[in-house]
Specification:
The structure holds two protein chains of two kinds. Chain A is of the alpha/beta class. Chain A has seven helices and ten strands. Chain A has a single domain, classed as Rossmann fold (3-Layer(aba) Sandwich), CATH 3.40.50.300. Helix content of chain A is about 35%, strand content about 25%. The model of chain A has no long low-confidence stretch (mean pLDDT about 90). Chain B has two domains: about 180 residues, no CATH class; about 200 residues, no CATH class. Helices cover about 55% and strands about 20% of the residues of chain B. Chain B is built from 14 helices and ten strands. Chain B has a six-stranded mixed beta barrel with strand order 2-3-8-5-7-6. In chain B, helix 2 packs antiparallel against helix 10 and helix 2 crosses helix 12. Chain B starts with 5 loop residues before the first helix and ends with a helix. The model of chain B has no long low-confidence stretch (mean pLDDT about 85). Classes of the chains: A alpha/beta, B alpha+beta. At the A-B interface, helix 2 and helix 3 of A face helix 1, helix 11 and helix 14 of B.
Chain lengths: ~220, ~400
């Protein structure tokens, strides 16, 4: 699914010293694998996730997603890849505050130009899968943190992308809500999705098929 | 383009309710100004037209030119002129300088020999009694209709129906019975006489023919078709009547149409200039829309980032912001148009003027402001669409 070779990312702030966030990282993730990328704060794991998620481009190196060399794609191509192949579950949930839970889940399907009737059905199924069918018409602010993260997972579930990138999905949650979210990610992995979990929590990382430790922009193990 | 997220666009407008409302109002004020000014212009133009209609704007008079006064106008000519294209009716006219004597008071006046069509063709209106009818013409009756001013000058009141009056015609005084009193002021004939003769007396044309010993008519009054009445029609008709009489240039046609044209032209220019000045406010409101949208883009960077991360293309984001600015201007325009129409309606009711909705101006200002919304929305929408998802998410 993922093949990254010699990825380097250097940030060059205006008037400041260049910062190397990723330093010559190579990795491969197989289809249906559950990989945990573990590292301390500032180790470069989120930068890695942004590049894997086609939100950012590496300064150097080559990255192929599902056989497509992402480095060669323009903005439209990257959008298309994100729409079809990647779902994100962010630490801060990243739900749109003016849209209800159902509308948030529906949004990626709208961008895929899916028919309204089909969208409604998928949204219903996704919210049922995370146990939030009764909160479909609630705004994010009317939901707890755990519920908001479940809406984000429902959004990933609805978009049916083969790759799920979860960046500290339990970071803002209590342990019980965190466990629920992790079990949902595992469930999605069992359904055949490739999951890349970015975390600093060793316990959460243990649930993955494989751990990849990252420190100062380099892979340690 | 993504049309499915329209409810999201509405929600975005609702989210910045105060800001959206102010933007909407700025557009509404601009559209209101344009529509009201155009409304005043079109109502004024209508008013001029209707007032001139009562002044006999659509009547014209065929008569021999000063150079050649030998042309005799006959009953056949009346019928032939009445059949010309652009002419609704024709009526024979006799005219003579006269003096009226009532209760030993002498008043200079102009005597007209007319028939039943005078009411319609030269816009005479009876204030008291009746006008000359065809029965009077057939019987060559000695009856007359006089201007209200003559009645007031002699009797001190308007209604002198049934009284006797002496008119000086062809060097002798003839007694007439007053059967009606006409409204003084602006009739078609007075318009054409340009106020030289202060008052008129109307008698059957046949009676005047008897008195003057003429078998022909002095003039022929025409009622022109209001839809085709313009200066070109007058020129065409002049050629045609001369053609009928086979007397090139001997007959001329006088009417009031050109003055109407000049007045409406002046009003139209004033209205257009004022509307254009008001139109500048639409451009200003377009800039307000752009400012609002730029603020909105700044506030919603994270939302843009989220949307891009879940697969929104730049075109989708562009469409969403552009739709928002167009929707804002469209709603503002609708509000402005409704207020302007209401204002015009109330103004017309207060001034007892028939209400004419300035539909053209409303449609034009709506289209223009929506266009402005689209033009001034392009920059903020482009800025939103061009954001890198990672930068937008970090904000």
């Amino acid at each position: 699914m993922i093949k990254a070779e010699n990825l380097t990312k250097i940030y060059s702030p205006c008037g400041g010293c260049p910062v190397t966030a990723l330093d010559d990282i190579s990795l491969e993730v197989a289809d249906g694998e559950f990989l945990a990328v573990v590292g301390a704060s500032g180790s470069g794991k989120t930068t890695l996730m942004n590049i894997i998620g086609c939100l950012d481009m590496p300064t150097e190196g080559r990255y192929c997603l599902d056989g497509t060399d992402v480095s060669t794609l323009d903005s439209r191509g990257l959008s298309s890849v994100r729409s079809k192949k990647i779902s994100f579950v962010f630490q801060g949930f990243n739900l749109i505050p003016t849209l209800t839970a159902a509308e948030n889940v529906e949004l990626p399907l709208i961008y895929r130009r899916m028919a309204a009737a089909q969208r409604k059905e998928i949204v219903k199924q996704a919210l049922e899968a995370v146990g939030l069918e009764k909160r479909a018409n609630h705004l994010p602010l009317e939901l707890s943190g755990g519920q908001q993260q479940r809406v984000a997972i429902a959004r990933a579930f609805a978009s049916d992308a083969p790759l799920i990138l979860a960046d500290e999905p339990c970071g803002n949650l209590d342990s019980k809500a965190g466990e629920t979210v992790m079990s949902m990610l595992r469930q999605m992995n069992k359904m055949g999705k490739t999951v890349v979990l970015i975390t600093h929590d060793n316990a959460a990382a243990k649930t993955a098929d494989r751990e990849l430790r990252i420190s100062d922009g380099r892979i340690c193990v | 383009m993504n049309y499915g997220n329209f409810s999201g666009i509405i929600k975005s407008i609702k989210r910045g309710r105060g800001r959206s409302w102010l933007t909407l109002c700025s557009v509404a004020v601009g559209v209101f100004a344009v529509v009201v000014i155009s409304g005043i212009g079109s109502i004024g133009s209508e008013r001029i037209s209707s007032t001139m209609m009562t002044m006999g704007i659509n009547s014209a008079m065929v008569q021999a030119s000063d150079e050649d006064s030998t042309v005799a106008l006959t009953r056949e000519d009346v019928a032939a002129f009445g059949r010309l294209q652009g002419v609704n009716k024709a009526m024979p006219l006799m005219a003579a300088m006269s003096r009226s004597v009532i209760l030993e008071n002498c008043v200079n006046c102009y005597a007209w020999g007319v028939d039943e069509d005078a009411r319609e063709i030269i816009s005479i209106e009876a204030v008291y009694g009746r006008l000359i009818d065809n029965h009077d013409v057939e019987n060559r009756s000695c009856v007359c209709v006089i201007d209200e001013d003559i009645a007031r000058q002699t009797y001190g009141r308007g209604n002198i129906v049934g009284k006797k009056i002496k008119l000086l015609l062809n060097g002798s005084y003839y007694e007439f019975e007053v059967v009606g009193v006409a409204k003084s002021g602006i009739t078609g004939l007075q318009s054409m006489m340009a106020g030289i003769i202060p008052d008129f007396a109307y008698i059957p044309y046949s009676t005047m023919q008897d008195i003057t010993g003429k078998s022909s008519f002095d003039k022929i009054a025409l009622l022109l078709d209001s839809k085709s009445a313009d200066e070109n029609l007058t020129e065409t008709l002049t050629e045609q009547v001369n053609g009928i009489k086979k007397c090139e240039g001997s007959l001329v046609i006088n009417n009031f149409q050109s003055q109407k044209g000049q007045l409406t032209d002046i009003l139209s220019v004033v209205t257009t200039v004022l509307s254009l000045i008001a139109g500048i406010s639409l451009i200003v409101s377009g800039i307000t829309v752009m400012t609002t949208m730029l603020v909105s883009v700044g506030e919603r960077k994270r939302e843009i980032g989220i949307k891009k991360s879940i697969g929104a293309k730049s075109g989708d984001i562009m469409w969403e912001f552009l739709s928002e600015s167009v929707l804002l201007t469209a709603l503002g325009s609708c509000l402005g148009i409704i207020l302007a129409l209401l204002c015009c309606f109330i103004g017309c009711a207060a001034l007892s003027v028939p209400f004419t909705a300035p539909v053209g101006a409303a449609a034009l200002s709506f289209a223009f402001s929506v266009f402005m919304g689209a033009v001034f929305g392009v920059y903020p929408a482009g800025k939103a669409a061009g954001m890198k998802p990672i930068d937008a998410l970090r904000s």
